[in-house]
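Internal ticket #5521
Category: modeling
Description: The requester needs a full-assembly model to guide mutagenesis choices. All entity lines are attached below as received. Residue total reported by intake: 655.
Assigned to: D.W.
Attached entities:
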Amino acid sequence: MSFLGSLSERDRVFDFLMPAQSPVDVRHGPILYLEDVTVSFDGFKAINDLNLTIDDGELRCIIGPNGAGKTTMMDIITGKTRPDTGKVWFGSRHNLLAMNEPEIASLGIGRKFQKPTVFEALSVFENLELAMAADKRILPTLTARMVEPVRERIEEVLETIGLTELRHRPAGILSHGQKQWLEIGMLLMQRPRLLLVDEPVAGMTEQEMERTAELLTGLAGKQSVVVVEHDMGFVRSIARKVTVLHQGSVLAEGSMDQVSNDPRVVEVYLGAPDEEA
Amino acid sequence: MWLTRPFSERSTQLFLGVLIAAMTLVTFLHLALPESNPLYVNAYTVNLFGKYLSYALLAVAVDLVWGYLGILSLGHGAFFALGGYAMGMYLMRQIGDRGVYGHPELPDFMVFLNWDSLPWYWAGFDMAWFAFLMVLLAPGLLALVFGFLAFRSRVTGVYLSIITQALTFALMLAFFRNEMGFGGNNGLTDFRDILGFNLRSDSVRLGLFLATGVALGLGYLICRAIASSKLGRVCVATRDAEARTRFLGYRVERFQLFVFVVSAMLAGVAGALYVPQVGIINPSEFSPLFSIEIVLWVALGGRATLYGAVIGAILVNYAKTIFTGVMPEAWLFALGAMFVLVTVFLPKGVAGLLAYRRKNSTSSSTPGNTSNTKEVSA
C-alpha cells in the first residue's frame, strides 16, 4: 500500500492545482449533515425524514434494496434534486440547499456515476488532464502548458488508480473495471473533499473488485467517501460503517456485523444471507 | 508559445514541407521553363491550383469544427461566400470609372438599377484594409450570432446541421434579390485590379496562388495549434461526451462558439482568396449543395487530421476538373461513386490509409505523443 502513501504528501500542493473552494469547516466533526430530509415525487416519498451524518475522512457504505432512495439521496447532495423539507449542510458553513450543481461541485463534492463515462478517443493521461482543477475558461485552456507540477500530480493519480502503464493508451481500449478506476481518478484530480461513488463494482471481476476495495479504502482518511453498493461481499470488505436505507429513511447503522444481524435488516433483505455467502 | 507548438509535430512538418515544395515547384515550372517545354505550367493551371488551395483552406476550416468538435456544419459555404463577397465588393470599387457605364463611383449593376448613390454598407470597401478586415469580421460575426443562439440552446447533432443548411439557403435567397445591393443573381464580377495590380496578368495570378498557399499554411498551423492544445482535447471530449465535459466544469457552449467562429473566419479568408482567382462571386456559392460538397471533401480525405481535408479537397476538385472537361454529365455519378467507395473501403478517408501505412512501416507505435491518439480518434 506504499503507493497509496504518496497521496498523503500534502506538502506538495500548488496553489493553481487547488480548486477555487472556500474552506470547508469540519471543526465540529461531520463533513456532511442531512437532517429530516423529505422528497416526494407525485406523492411517493422517495426520501422520508432522512437523517445522515458523514464524518470527515470517513468511508461509509450505503446499502438498501432497490427504491430505498440511495440515488435520490446522492441527487440531493449534489444539487440535482431539491428536497421538500430538511437541511443539508457541507461542513458547518455551507448550506447545500442554497447552491446549484456547479457551485456544489466546485466546493469539492465529486460524484461518480454508475455507468463510467470516459473520453474514449483521448488517452488515459489526457482524461486526467482535462479533469484537473484548473482555469477552465477558453484562453487559459488554449494556452495551457504541461508544467512539471501538473505532470507529477497526474502521475501520482495514475499510480493511485493503477493505470500508470496504460497512460498513453486511448481510454476506449480500457476494460470496464479500468474505466471505473479512471473515472475515480478523474474525480481525484479535482481534489474533492467528499467523494460520492455509485455502485463502483457492478460488472467487475473478482480481482477488479479487490483492487477497487484497496483503492477506496486507501482514499478514506484524505477524502470522505460515500459508497452506494449492492454487492454485500464488497461492502463487507471495505466498510467500517454501514448505513441501511429502506423506504427513504435510515433503517439501521453500524458495523457490517451489527447491521447484518439486525432482524429488521434481515427482513428487508430476505435473500440477503445467501448473497453474502 | 501555443501557436508554435505544432512545429514540433512530424505531421505538421511534413505537411508544411510538401506545401512549400509544391508552391516552389509550380512557381519554378511556370517561370523558369519555356512554354514549349512539356512540363511548363501555364497561367491557367497556376490559377486552377490557386483555386484548389483556397478550397483546401475551406476544407481545413470545416474539419476543425466537424472532425474535432463534432459539429457537422452543412452551411460553411455561407462563411466562404461572405468572405468572397467582402473581397468582391473591394474589387468592384477598384474598377472605378472603367465600368461599362463609366460611373465614377457606382458599380455597373447599381447604375443599371437606377440607383444614385452607394448603399451605406458599401462604404469603406474602397479601402483594402477595411475590406480585408470585413473578410474576417463578416463571417465571424455571423458565426458568433448564429453560434451563440444555437449553442446556448444546446442545439447539436443533426438539428444543428439542418439549421446551418437553412442558414446558407436563406442567405442564398437573400443575395439573389437585386434590392440587396450585391448584384443579384449575377453577383459581382468584371474585376480589374487588386492592390493596384492588374488581376488579369500572369504574375498577379502567380502571386495570388502563392498568397493562397501561404494562407493555407497559416490556417493549417492555427487549426493544428488549436487541435493540439488542451482546448483541442476539450473539443474532442465535447465531441464524444458533451454532458460529461460539462460536468467537469468546462463551459462547453463557449468552446463550441470559439472554435466555430475561428473556423468561419478561416472559411471567409478562403472565400476572399477564391474570388479574385475565379473572377466572380455570385449567390450560387451559398447553395446548400456546395456546403454539402465541402463536407464530402473532408469525409473523403479523412476527418480530424486537417491534412486529410486538404488532400480530400484537392483530389475531389482535381477529379471534378478532369471529369467536367471530359464528360460533364458523369461528374455527379463519379462523385457519388467516390464517396461510396471511400465510405466502404476507407472509413477513415485517404488520411486513414496514410496513417495505417505509416504505422505499419514504423511498426513500433511510439506513445507519448498526443498526435498518435488523435489518429486513433480520426
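Resolution: model delivered.
Comment from assignee: Confidence is low (pLDDT under 50) at residues 363-378 of chain B.
Ticket closed.
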